[in-house]
């Protein structure tokens, strides 16, 4: 019970605290006026773009699966991916959605290695593409905001990403004496799969291109909502400012990014002259659009056997609880 509730309490507290702090800095009556004056047609267009975002995510993960030689139909890929998107908004942090995606893809016939590695590498490619896009658009940001602080951060992050991928791809060079451990064998498999994706130009470039298009599409969705709020924002502003916001949102410290997104949006759009009330309304509406887009994934989850999954999870926990008290600790492998 504690393991189930504690993440909600911690991350929910962070989300509520950040939202309360941001709201205390803006004129709420002005924010309400802007929200009620929102052009509904732009909201509909943003919903369409977010549905396209789901499709791009399906293609991205599908390419990763095929790079790993994993046999998984496109219909199954779309269904499991949508389920993961749904859980990414109802579980604390984005990792919960990835874990559910691994579970369902394993249940749908993938091997455990393919299920885990494909989701992990798809996430790695997505973050790498996001950092790359931020670095590519940074000259535009510096031209727009000459005194922008911390311009060295994202090139450093890009270097860290590249080094991380190279290290990940070489983990199968571990001494063979360690391969008797199950965890090490899993790492060796991950290293081989990393090379299949990142070191094969056809798969790596194709997946990277889809990931970049998805990040650009997300920026366009925010721009459409900004137009609906009648904000003085250029499309290039959103292309430059939204990717860093999304990158910050990937930190698993809040529930579905709430609070973190609002704080980052107010800070980022403040650099281009958007007042805090407008920025927080933009962020909240974007969050609502994201939630509405993800909700059909809950229906897919129920149709795919969500009740069975929950029952199996509870049964596994009960078995573990029954066995743990009587199970002696394993001997240490170290002398």
TrEMBL record:
<feature type="transmembrane region" description="Helical">
    <location>
        <begin position="124"/>
        <end position="145"/>
    </location>
</feature>
<keyword id="KW-1133">Transmembrane helix</keyword>
<keyword id="KW-0472">Membrane</keyword>
<feature type="transmembrane region" description="Helical">
    <location>
        <begin position="202"/>
        <end position="226"/>
    </location>
</feature>
<keyword id="KW-0812">Transmembrane</keyword>
<feature type="transmembrane region" description="Helical">
    <location>
        <begin position="80"/>
        <end position="104"/>
    </location>
</feature>
<feature type="transmembrane region" description="Helical">
    <location>
        <begin position="238"/>
        <end position="260"/>
    </location>
</feature>
<feature type="transmembrane region" description="Helical">
    <location>
        <begin position="280"/>
        <end position="304"/>
    </location>
</feature>
<keyword id="KW-1003">Cell membrane</keyword>
<feature type="transmembrane region" description="Helical">
    <location>
        <begin position="5"/>
        <end position="23"/>
    </location>
</feature>
<protein>
    <submittedName>
        <fullName>Flippase-like domain-containing protein</fullName>
    </submittedName>
</protein>
<dbReference type="InterPro" id="IPR022791">
    <property type="entry name" value="L-PG_synthase/AglD"/>
</dbReference>
<feature type="transmembrane region" description="Helical">
    <location>
        <begin position="43"/>
        <end position="68"/>
    </location>
</feature>
<dbReference type="Pfam" id="PF03706">
    <property type="entry name" value="LPG_synthase_TM"/>
</dbReference>
<feature type="transmembrane region" description="Helical">
    <location>
        <begin position="152"/>
        <end position="171"/>
    </location>
</feature>
């Amino acid at each position: 019970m504690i393991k189930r509730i504690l993440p909600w309490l911690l991350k929910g507290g962070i989300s509520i605290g950040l939202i309360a702090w941001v709201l205390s800095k803006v004129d709420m009556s002005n924010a309400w006026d802007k929200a009620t004056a929102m052009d509904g047609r732009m909201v509909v267009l943003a919903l369409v773009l977010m549905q396209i975002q789901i499709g791009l995510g399906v293609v991205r993960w599908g390419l990763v699966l095929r790079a790993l030689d994993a046999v998984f139909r496109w219909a199954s890929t779309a269904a499991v991916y949508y389920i993961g998107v749904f859980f990414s908004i109802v579980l604390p942090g984005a990792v919960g959605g990835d874990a559910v995606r691994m579970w369902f893809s394993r249940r749908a016939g993938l091997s455990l290695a393919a299920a885990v590695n494909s989701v992990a590498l798809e996430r790695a490619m997505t973050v790498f593409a996001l950092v790359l896009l931020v670095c590519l658009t940074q000259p535009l940001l510096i031209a727009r905001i000459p005194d922008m602080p911390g311009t060295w951060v994202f090139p450093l992050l890009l270097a860290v990403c590249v080094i991380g991928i190279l290290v990940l791809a070489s983990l199968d060079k571990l001494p063979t004496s360690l391969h008797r451990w199950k965890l090490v064998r899993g790492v060796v498999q991950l290293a081989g799969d990393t090379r299949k994706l990142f070191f094969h130009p056809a798969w790596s470039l194709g997946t990277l291109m889809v990931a970049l298009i998805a990040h650009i599409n997300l920026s366009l969705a925010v721009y459409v909502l900004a137009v609906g709020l009648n904000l003085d924002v250029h499309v290039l502003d959103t292309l430059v400012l939204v990717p860093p916001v999304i990158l910050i949102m990937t930190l698993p410290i809040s529930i579905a990014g709430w609070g973190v997104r609002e704080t980052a949006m107010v800070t980022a759009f403040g650099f281009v002259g958007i007042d805090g009330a407008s920025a927080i309304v933009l962020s909240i509406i974007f969050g609502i659009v994201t939630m509405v887009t993800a909700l059909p994934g809950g229906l897919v989850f129920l149709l795919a056997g969500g009740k069975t999954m929950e029952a199996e999870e509870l049964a596994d926990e009960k078995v573990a609880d029954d066995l743990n008290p009587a199970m002696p600790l394993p001997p240490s492998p170290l002398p």
